[in-house]
Amino acid sequence: MGNSVGVREVDVLIVGGGCSGVAALLQAVCMGARVLVVEESPWLGGMITAAGVSCIDGNEGALGGGIFGAFRAAMEQHYGGPEAVRTGWVSNTCFEPQVAAAWFRDAVAASTAECLHGARLVRVLREEQRIAGAVFEHGGAALEVRAHVTIEATEYGDVLALGEVPFRLGRESRAETGEAHAPEEADDEIQDLTMVATLRRVQGGAKPVLLPPGQDTARFHNSTAVHAKIQDPAYWNHKLHSWESFLTYALLPESGEDSTPGDLFMLNWPFHSNDYPAQGLFGTPEERASTLAAAKERTLAYVHYMQTELGHPEWGLAEDVYPTADHLPLLPYVRESRRVVPVRWLREEDVVPRDGSKRNAVQPDGVAVGDYYLDHHHDKDHRPPGERLGECFPSNAPFQIPYSAMLPREVNGLIAAEKSIGATHIVNGCSRLQPVALLIGQAAGAAAALAVRDGCEPREVDVTELQSLLLAAGAQIVPDRDCPNTLPDFAERQRALLAGG
């Protein structure tokens, strides 16, 4: 990085242009804030674009609304209706990553916000107990950005680490959180990452993918029933899927008149496939790069396995989806990141109903909603009996994200979004999904704009006004599938639910 230093001043600095980052931008700018989003990759949208996870997990039906609802409606309209995006059994909303990226790009281009791509976070500006912005490396020069509010929206929680904001990484102990299903002792177990691949079927055979040096395809033999030496799901702790079931998991729709249904596939398979240990992402830059390289090799090895041992050479890497030389996504799918120590933790008891009820207790400061189950990806949980990690969680119910879980306990000037909110390791299994991250980002953007308007800290924002602004934007703050934001009494119904009605 050269000696040249540029200085910018904005109202709201958003570090990371993923799901939360782009949603925060769109909300804050429509409230009049001067916003800058800094994103290292050339695409906005994070998980659902640059990381290739182009099948929405959760928030089915009318749940969610807001920017997430607008995005889902746009995908349905692009492909010709709700049925046209129900192409894989993993999701009711599937799409091409580049189509989603174009939607976010165009939505931001129509606003007054500015996006800076290709910039790398190198330092966080901290003035005693306050975050005042950050410094980036961009084009060989340093750029210092000062802001009234900074939003942590990176994939890794890097703002927390560089800003010395207290955070957790790994599993909390039962004594620390009081969660019934937390381990006795805290440890460094985190969810696996995945380097997703978008595959295309080519009649006559796709381009062969070579087996990377040092990779052993035997590790994949239990990913389906085809090569399972022991045909007992209990032994492997997962269902043994047929090739047909595996393939129809995540088929994607395709744009264009010449496209053939069923020729595009998202490889993000949870069983003995391309999940990879993520601990190295949170070490040195060299350790992160090494981890990502190894994760790519794992994915390429699985594609090679599909082409050879599974006998499907017609499937290969789609070469026209990502602007990358290796045709893999720009980012890994990071399921669990550093999580801020918040004003109030979001714990197991907040998402798992008590006494057999199907509804969770209402969070008075709820600002976003989700409905996904406590889904944790650990390759260690699909080993033979006696060798497993052993995570097993109860059924949860639709839940809220409280604003107090987005605020650092001790540090001002910062709002945590994306997967860095103050959710425990257990709750991260349901709070990490794409719709929830979009809605968290929208709430973060609204809160930041209010703090700018009133000249106050994010923790001093009037939560009732924040909730009213989100309702006005069509975003749910209490889960309710019976009253979508298209109905005239949407806001009134939401307020009644918030009050316990």
UniProtKB/TrEMBL annotation:
It comes from the Bacteria. The keyword Oxidoreductase applies. GO terms for molecular function: 4 iron, 4 sulfur cluster binding; metal ion binding; oxidoreductase activity. Keywords: 4Fe-4S, Iron, Iron-sulfur, Metal-binding, Oxidoreductase. InterPro entries: FAD/NAD-bd_sf, HdrA-like. This is Putative FAD-binding dehydrogenase. It comes from Saltatorellus ferox. The lineage of its organism: Bacteria, Pseudomonadati, Planctomycetota, Planctomycetia, Planctomycetia incertae sedis.
